[in-house]
Design a protein that fits this description.
The chain is of the alpha+beta class and about 325 residues long. It is about 25% helix and about 20% strand.
């Protein structure tokens, strides 16, 4: 009987990469036959694998550099994590972000936001929640560009979606007092993909809490570990208040979650308003809610790092369909 040996010249954390399978026979003078040949159309290109491995190494190195490993563990275990105000390093952005959102909210409705009582926002009853939701903010003020490029938040989003991920939309929410719960749901369901969802993230959310989040302030809630269900909640699950466990979050924090994670929100019982900035990201193959690329000015590109152009679609990271990077994006989650 012929014996089979595997000669490896490279092994990575994902297993055997380059190998040659040879069949040996005692009947041949050298004890071995010629190396086996394989149909190349079904083999992964070694260059593509190297590109995918390099992207993974870069993403994990940035996680390590920014001391975010425990946040990655939380994303894997719970499906969400919270960057504290101290970890974001963005304290100087909070007042400008709040001012810009309140200004835009007033401009678009003609009504100044009553931040003390919240009475101006008691009447907002939309299918998507009892909030004033305002999309298309990125181009309205450079402060939103700075928020988008926050290094810790972007590193965690990149861990979830890869280096070629894009901004689907950047929007604000202003929530006043009321009685409406936001039912449990997944952001993945908004992508238009048919369930079940893949276990890896196709979309992800980074929400800046510009006011304190808690139960009476109308804060968010999650079902820990629900990202592994790979489906949206049923009707009964979506309205099951026993699943609504409030998250206590300080103003200035950034909440980041996997697109499969079940989440909802409590009604606001306290006076005043809850204000947040929502950054919704997707993998590059999904169509964004906002086609930002053609609208990005040269000035915006000049004042931001190159990654900004990729995030907004002003530069196509995967523009060449047959390039190693584009092909690697089909085999590696971090590309």
């Amino acid at each position: 009987m012929a014996d089979t040996t595997i000669e490896m010249d490279r092994v990575s954390s994902r297993g055997i990469r380059d190998h040659e399978v040879q069949a040996g026979s005692a009947d041949t003078p050298a004890g071995r036959e010629a190396p086996a040949r394989f149909a190349p159309g079904f083999l992964l290109d070694r260059e593509v694998e190297l590109v995918a491995d390099a992207a993974r190494a870069r993403v994990l190195a940035e996680i390590d550099r920014l001391n975010l490993v425990h946040h990655v563990a939380a994303l894997e275990l719970h499906g969400y994590t919270i960057l504290s105000p101290e970890e974001t390093g963005a304290a100087a952005l909070l007042e400008p972000l709040m001012a810009a959102i309140l200004r835009i909210s007033e401009t678009r409705t003609g009504v100044p936001v009553d931040v003390v009582t919240g009475d101006t926002h008691r009447h907002f009853h939309l299918p998507t929640g009892q909030v004033q939701w305002e999309p298309s903010l990125l181009l309205k003020d450079p402060v939103f560009e700075q928020a988008l490029m926050n290094p810790p938040a972007l590193a965690l989003i990149t861990y979830l979606l890869g280096e070629s991920c894009i901004v689907s939309h950047l929007s604000s929410m202003v929530k006043g007092p009321g009685d409406d719960y936001l039912p449990m749901h997944t952001d993945q369901n908004q992508s238009g993909a048919i369930p079940p969802a893949p276990p890896y993230a196709q979309v992800a959310n980074a929400t800046w809490a510009l006011t304190d989040y808690n139960r009476d302030n109308g804060g968010i809630c999650f079902v820990p570990g629900s990202h592994r269900y790979c489906r949206q909640p049923t009707y009964a699950e979506a309205v099951d208040l026993s699943l609504f466990q409030p998250l206590e979050v300080k103003a200035g924090s950034i909440i980041i979650w996997h697109g499969n994670t079940w989440h909802g929100a409590f009604p606001r019982r306290n006076p005043g308003v809850r204000v947040s900035l929502v950054e919704y990201f997707s993998r590059s193959y999904l169509r964004p809610s906002e086609d930002l690329g053609p609208l990005i000015s040269p000035e915006a590109l000049e004042r931001n790092p190159p990654r900004f152009a990729v995030l907004t679609g002003a530069a196509k990271h995967l523009k060449d369909f047959n390039s190693p990077v584009t092909r690697a994006s089909r085999v590696g989650l971090f590309v």
